[in-house]
Backbone:
């Protein structure tokens, strides 16, 4: 920029003198030398501009540039009147350049001394006639031979240049110190972000990734150079995308902090659960980025899921336990009230299961329970619930029944499935079951009441010879003297077993 201004002024001054009454005062040789000097300066400055990295390897490259610029200023002073030239002010600009390029105080004084010595040498050579003085219009030619003027003008240029060196060095020292502190602060902040244990990411308002720290890159399997091509939607699990985008948009629009609880997809497609906080970076009042500081909670979520399953499922059969069964039963009761349908509870156990444990051992007994649980699950609908509540006792909740006859149909299906032979290790086992049935709302409205009445019906079935089912409603009718004349045994599968050759227990 400085060279451009200098060339514009030289063109203006040359044109002015050419059309003035003074005429252009430089000879062709002098003009050619001046133009070559300016072209030389342009060339080496362009080389510094384009090859700065290579030139920076040389220790004194900046010193050489300052010296060459000082030499150019001296040449310009000579061709613009020598002692009478006002171009000496360019020394101040080169001094400022030296203050910017050179770091140490001794180097600044080197630049000042170059300017002072070159200017003094020019004045001395012109005064002694070694270099012919070029007379300038508007200037008294006797100034070039006046010792007092030459000494005063040299001292004025030297001392003013020294003052600029001192003030410039002080200001640059302060600026460099502040810049260094800022740079160190940025480096500390960058190191803190880079090596933090949390997952830290920065996204542009359009979702593009601007930054992610090492923990984030490691968690999701990406390289830093791959971030520029990623957007938030590329990594978000479909289940979390809508909520996450909505929260990001809210943070951008309001500038308030937000929360993030989402599932990301790593590079290999595996889900990563994260939770954390969102904050908005503003430039003025315009949002420029959203920061997310998260934690990888995948292992914790899996542990929570395992704990929840252990708390709500039977360890041996993986069926729901009593706690989860009562919760499901409550939901099914609400559904029955809304749809005006029946709900049935089946309470069952395996007949003489204790003898299996006593004769064949608990390992065989456990496998028998697992096999029975699988048959029970296969015998009911997905909307029904099968649970193990202890030992060989199971309960089943049947929903959306038209009437109690539907519960009896399922009970017969279950008994037939359970009495089929079991192949456990090297043993073939034949086991029957007894079932008690209670129906909502006929037999009660409370959940514990329904479970208790189904248990009562189960014990009645056992008293009647096992291998059969009983409804609590029928027991109530019998107590009132209005029971069916066919007898309770008719509701079992003893007749079916006899016909098929399957022995009872």
Residues:
């Amino acid at each position: 920029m400085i060279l451009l201004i200098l060339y514009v002024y030289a063109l203006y001054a040359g044109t002015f003198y050419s059309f003035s009454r003074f005429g252009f005062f430089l000879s062709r040789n002098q003009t050619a030398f001046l133009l070559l000097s300016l072209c030389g300066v342009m060339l080496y400055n362009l080389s510094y501009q384009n090859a700065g990295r290579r030139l920076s390897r040389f220790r004194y490259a900046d010193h050489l540039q300052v010296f060459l610029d000082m030499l150019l200023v001296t040449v310009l002073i000579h061709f613009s009147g020598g002692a009478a030239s006002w171009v000496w002010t360019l020394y101040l600009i080169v001094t400022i350049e030296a203050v910017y390029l050179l770091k140490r105080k001794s180097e600044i004084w080197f630049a000042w001394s170059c300017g002072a010595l070159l200017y003094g040498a020019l004045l001395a050579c012109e005064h002694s006639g070694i270099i012919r003085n070029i007379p300038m219009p508007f200037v008294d030619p006797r100034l070039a031979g006046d010792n007092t003027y030459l000494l005063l003008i040299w001292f004025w240029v030297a001392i003013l240049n020294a003052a600029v060196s001192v003030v410039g060095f002080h200001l640059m020292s302060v600026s460099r110190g502040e810049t260094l502190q800022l740079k160190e602060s940025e480096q500390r902040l960058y190191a803190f972000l880079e090596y933090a244990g949390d997952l830290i990411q920065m996204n542009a308002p359009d979702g593009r990734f601007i930054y992610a720290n090492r923990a984030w890159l490691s968690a999701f399997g990406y390289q830093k150079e791959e971030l520029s091509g990623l957007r938030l939607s590329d990594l978000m699990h479909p289940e979390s995308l809508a909520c996450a985008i909505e929260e990001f948009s809210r943070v951008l629009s309001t500038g308030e902090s937000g929360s993030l609880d989402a599932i990301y997809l790593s590079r290999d497609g595996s889900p990563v659960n994260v939770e954390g906080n969102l904050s908005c970076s503003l430039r003025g009042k315009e949002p420029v980025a959203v920061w997310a500081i998260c934690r990888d909670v995948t292992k914790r979520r899996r542990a929570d899921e395992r704990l929840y399953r252990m708390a709500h499922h039977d360890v041996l059969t993986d069926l729901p336990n009593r706690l989860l069964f009562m919760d499901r039963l409550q939901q099914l009761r609400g559904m029955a009230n809304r749809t005006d349908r029946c709900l049935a509870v089946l309470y069952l156990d395996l007949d003489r299961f204790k003898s299996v444990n006593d004769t064949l051992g608990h390992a065989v007994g456990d496998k028998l329970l697992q096999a029975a649980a699988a048959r029970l699950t296969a015998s009911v609908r997905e909307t029904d619930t099968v649970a193990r509540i202890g030992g060989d006792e199971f309960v089943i909740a049947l929903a959306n029944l038209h009437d109690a006859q539907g519960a009896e149909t399922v009970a017969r299906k279950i008994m037939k499935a359970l009495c089929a032979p079991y192949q456990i290790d090297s043993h073939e086992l034949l086991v029957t079951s007894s079932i008690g049935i209670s129906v909502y709302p006929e037999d009660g409205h409370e959940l514990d009441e329904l479970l208790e009445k189904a248990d009562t019906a189960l014990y009645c079935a056992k008293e009647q010879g096992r291998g059969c089912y009983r409804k609590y409603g029928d027991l109530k009718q019998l107590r009132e003297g209005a029971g069916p004349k066919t007898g309770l045994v008719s509701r079992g599968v003893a007749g079916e077993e006899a016909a098929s050759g399957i022995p009872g227990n």
About this structure: The longest strand covers residues 271-283. Confidence is low (pLDDT under 50) at residues 482-505. DSSP finds 18 helices and twelve strands in the chain.
